[in-house]
Write the C-alpha cells for this entry.
Amino acid sequence: MNTTVSPLAFSLDGSIAALFVVLGLGVMVSRQMLGSLRFFMWQSVALTASALVLADALQAINLLWVALITFSTKVIAVPLVLRWAAGEEIYGRREVDQALSISASVLVAAILALVGWFAVAPVLPILHGTPFALLNLPTGLIMVLWGAFTVALRRESVAQLMGLLIMENGAFFGSIAIVHNLTVIAEIAAAVDVPIVALVIGLLIRSIRRVTGTTRVGGMDTLHER
Amino acid sequence: MNASWLPALILLMPFVGALLALLNRRAAPYMTLLAAAITLILAILAALQVESHGLLTGTDGLFALDALGALYLLPVSFVYFTSSLYAIGYLRARRQEHPAGTPPRYREYFPLMNIFALVILAVPLVANLALMWIAIELTTVFSAFLVAYEDRAEALEAAWKYVVLTSMGAMIALLGVLMLYYGTHAIDQPPTWDGLLKAAPQIPAPLLLLAFVLWLIGFGAKTGLVPMHTWLPDAHSQAPASVCAVLSGVETSAALYMLLRIYPVLASNSGVHDPAAWYMAAGLITVGSAAFMLLQVHDFKRMFAYSTIEHMGIILTACGIGAAVHEQGTVYQLFAHGFTKSLCFYAAGLAGIVFGTQEIAKVRGLISRAPAVGWALVIGTLAIAGAPPFALFLSEFEILYTGFRTGQYLPTGLLTAFIVLAFIALAYQASRIAFGEPATAADGRPLPKVRLPRTSLAAMAMAIIPVFIFGFYLPPPLAHLVHQAAYLLEVHG
C-alpha cells in the first residue's frame, strides 16, 4: 500500500473533514426538518468527496465504489425514499422540537468531540499504512457520538432518523481511511441496507402520523413500569 | 447432495416462503409453515455435517458454519417453525379484537416473518463480518412492522423505540466491525471469525479494545444489556406472541452471539487485560437490574421480556467466568434459552386470549379456565427460572458450581443472589396468574370457556418437548456439537 501521499490530498481531506463536522452540527441543531435533511445530504456529499480524495491518493479502486454508492444512496435515494414513504410533510418548513437549547446542544457536542478524540487517540499511532486515519477516524467517531446525541436530543421522528443516518456517515467516514477493501458483496449489501432502513423507518413515520396525527415522537411515553 | 449447498438452501427457503406468501395471501400461513419446516430439516442436516466435519463452507467462501453457529442455527430454525405454526390460529383468534375484523397488518405478517427469519438465519451462516453486521441490522428493520402489528399508538411507540435504540446500537457497532476489518486485513487474514482469531495476537490491543467497546455498546443495545434494554419490554408487551417468541428466543441472541464470538479474540491478545471482567461486569449489572425489575412488573409479557434481559446477562457473565463453564454453561444456556423462551411466550399469548388482558393484577385461575395453557405457563416459567428438571437448570447449575469451584466467589455469589431473586419473582408472578379463583361475570356466573386455536396449542406442545428432554438427555451428536462449540469459545495456543 502506498503510504506517501501528497500534501494537497491531506489538505483537501482536512478541509472536507472540517466541512463534514460543520454539516453534522447543522443536522444536530437545525430547527427545520427540511434544513436537517439538507444538512444530511450535503454531509453525504462531503463523505463522497473524502472517498474520492482517498481513492486517488491511495490508488484504492474500491473507494471509488464507496463514493458512488454513498452518493447514489444517501444523496439521491434516501431523500426520494423518505418523500415516498413518510410523505410530503418532511419537506414542509416546520420547527423541530428538541430537548435542549441550541447553545446547550453545542456545548454537549463539544464535550462529545473531546470524548471521541480521547477515545481514538491511543489507536492513531499504531495504524500503519493509513495516513488519512489521523483525520478521518476521530472525525468519524465524533460523528457517531453526535448522531446518537441527535437521536436523544430531537423529539421529531424525521430528525431522529437524520441522527441515525449521520451516525452511519460517521462510521463510514472513519472507516474509509483504514478499510479500502470491503468485498464487493459487502459493498453491495451496504448499498442496499441504507435505503431499506430509510424506507422502513419512513413507513413507520407515516404510520405514526396516521395514528397519532403527528410525526412528533417525543411525547410517546405511555409504555413503562408503573 | 453436496453439503456445501446447505447454507444457501437454508436461506433460500424463507425467501421463497416470503415470495409465495406475497403472491398468495390466503395460503400465506401454510406457505410460511412449509418453508419453516424445510428450513428446520435443512438446519438439522447442516448441524449434523458440522458435527462430523467441524466446518461447513459454501458458495466460494460466502458461507461458513461452525459448531457454535450450528448450535445457534438449531433454535432459530425450530422457533421459526413453531412460531409459524402458532401464528396460524393465534392471529385469527386475535382478529376478533379488531373492529374491521382483520388487523391492518395481517397481510404483511407472513412475508415479513419469513424475511425476518431469513436475516436471523444469515447471522451464523455468512462468513464475512460486515455481512453479519448487515444481517443483524436488517433483523430490526424487518421486524419493526411485526412489533407494530396491532397498529395502535402504543404498538407504534414500541416499534419506534425498538428501531431507534437498536439502530443506534447497530451504527455504533458498525465502526467496531470496520476497525476489526482493518485489523484482519493488516495481517493478511480474511474478515471472518477464523481470520480474526488468527490475527488476534497481532492486532494492536488499543484498536481491538476500542472495537470491542463499540461492539459492547452497539450489540449490547440489541441484546438488551442494561441500560440499553428499555426497548425490549415495550416491544414485547405490544408485539404478537408469535413475534415475541422469535424476538426474545433467538433475535436478541444474534447480537449476543457476536459478543460471545469476540471473546476468544480478545483473550488471545496479550495486550488486552482481563477481558473477562468486562463480560462479568456487563452481565451482572444486566442480571441484577432485570431481577429487581421482575419484582415490580405488571404485565406478563413484559415479565418474560425482563427474563430475557436476565438470561442475556447470565450468558455474558458465564462467558466471563471462563473456559471451564463454556460447554455445559455458556453455550448450553444460549442453546436452551431459545426453546424455553418461545414456550413462555406461546403460553403468554394464549393466556392473553383467555383473559383479554396482559395485566397480572387482573388475571387469576388460568389453570381453571384453560388447563393446558395454565400448566404450560407454569412449566415455561419454572423452566425459564432455572428449575429442575429442565434444560436451563443444567446450565445455570453448572455456571454457579464452576464459578465457586474456580474461586470466583464475588461474581458467582452475586450471580447466585440475582438468579434466586429472579426465580422468586417469576414463580410469584406465575402463581398469581395460574392459580386462584378465576374471575366471574358480573352476575357471578363463571366466564364462558374460550376456544383456543389448535395450531397454537400444538406449537406450544412442541416447544415443551426440547425444554423437557434437553434437561436430562442430549442425543450424542448434539452433545458433541455442544462440546465443539465450547471449544471455539476457548483460547488455544
Remarks:
- Strands of chain B lie at 55-58, 63-66.
- Chain B has a mean pLDDT of 92.
- Residues 3-489 of chain B form one domain.
